[in-house]
Give the backbone structure.
Amino acid sequence: MRLHEYQAKGVFAETGIPTPDSKLAWDVDEAVEAANEIGYPVAIKAQVHVGGRGKAGGIKLVDDEEEAREAADAILGMDLKGFHVDRVLVEAAVDFTDELYVGVTMDRGAGRPVAMVSERGGVNIEEVAEEEPDAIAREHIDPAYGMHPFQARKAVYNAGLDKEVAGDVASILMTLYDLWEERDGADIEINPLMVTSGGDVVAADAVFNVDGDALFRQPELAEMEDEAATDDLEAKANEYGFDYVRLDGNVGIIGNGAGLVMTTLDLVDYYGGKPANFLDIGGGAKAERVANALDMVFSDENVDAVVFNIFGGITRGDEVAKGINEALEQFDDIPKDVIVRLAGTNAEEGMEILNTELVQVEATLEEAVQAAVKAAEEVEQ
Amino acid sequence: MSVLVDEDTRVVVQGITGGEGKFHTGQMLNYGTNVVAGAVPGRGGQEVDGVPVYDTVEQAVEAEDANASVVFVPPAFAGDALFEALDADLDLVVAITEGIPTQDVSRVYRTLQETDTYLVGPNCPGLITPGEAKLGILPGNIFSEGNVGLVSRSGTLTYQVVDNLTERGLGQSTAIGIGGDPIIGTGFIDALELFENDPETDAIVMCGEIGGEDEEQAAAYIDEHVDTPVAGFIAGRTAPPGKRMGHAGAIVSGSGTGTAESKINALEDAGVPVGDTPEEVADAIESFL
């Protein structure tokens, strides 16, 4: 789960990490008022869950009230890489001489957290990471002890930071790690961490992603969750509790288990079709859940045909068949072809229940996918 | 022969009195697994399906000589349950639980390095040695005895591939579902090493998916250390970057690491044929044997 910049900065501020003066605004008047109060120049920043906001026009630096009004008007309501901007952060612009990077994340390969520092902060940090990995100093942390102060010092000196700021950055890194640990962070980043002309450091941006599996013990952060789904179907999937990803093809895909659903997508592509979505109904789904899944995929207007592939372990074929019948029997005219393949637990019972007047049944995964690709092609023609 | 589990494995089920724990204990017993005990705090003295329940794992080990555990404990308490299992010095711990906070798993992982215990999972279907024992939630009836070792990050994909194998009369020595989380205990390399050293495993199937670099590292390991022929499969060729495909670990990062292409290339460079379909994986295994 991802916090907005203003939420992350709120959490940072509580721990003493310096952040610029700022105020959240929901409309143009509020934004202008905030800008006047803070004093120019200010930055007006879209609050959306998107990386690269600046490059996409979601951040504007303004010098007076007129510019502030213009910028707020342009940013509020804009569509930023598919996300609707409904609020902006108005923030004092920082007069900086350097942009640094600090962050803490889980290194999945090492199975332990890693703290990172670089003097090459700013908008290109991902390219720096890719092309010059040595420009980022990394320090793995033993989760049993947390970060030792010497590790923070080591990281900042290895990153080549100036002596004037090294102490401050090391102490921010310590605070950041403690925050990451206490608040179940997934990734926490300050990029850029600006060095002002006066030699102070200020967190000019903030990324705080929380481990979604730990929200049960982070009630304060859980309350900040802001369902910013990009489209109605993804919102609907959240409601139903499905793992769902929308793609741009026309073959709808429903299955059980992430690996098998991904494989079904890949096979649709392999046999010349285009997957419309990833939808995993999970393990042990009952009839109602199966019907909801069909409802979801039917409501995607791009879908021309659906392949429903179940290999039952804890999911039972008879429950799946019941759900498919229930979902389809309510239509006088079924909107899209449904191709079903059932295997595994109670598959035979399921085949007996399945109303074959409503669906096409195939024996293998490969055959089912090929049939769906063909059905979708016929609709397109 | 087999790896990690066989008919002598003595299992304690942690969380045996919960819905999942109870149901799958029944299924494991039906399959012939030696489930000798359950462990649930405060439930010592009860029985589930005739299996005695103890308050702690240590008591279960002392009283019933258990040497492996299967964990069905809910996510909020699972980290603690895994520490308890490691403390009891078991040979094998299988963590079925999905959704354990990553930092908890990281701490368990750190302690795991100091033990001789194999941890399979978390968020995995478990493992099975056909005809002898299954530890976890895999449907026993699709497996058959044989000499193909299988290791996979995904449960249902494992079933699909096993089905393709069984249909051709290609049985399995042991099938291990290592789980789809970012941090797991037993990885591909551990499993490959076990199969390589098992005289009864004559071919290996390795099913990977997008995310992380485990498959690339496994490919390098195969190149150096594995003589047993390996066939591979990688799920997620069509997955867009930045979107999590169900499993917490199945995500291609924005900077392009963890792609199917990189994994397929690494495996093929190591001489491992990678099937475009599960059927082609079975073709490759058939050609090895």
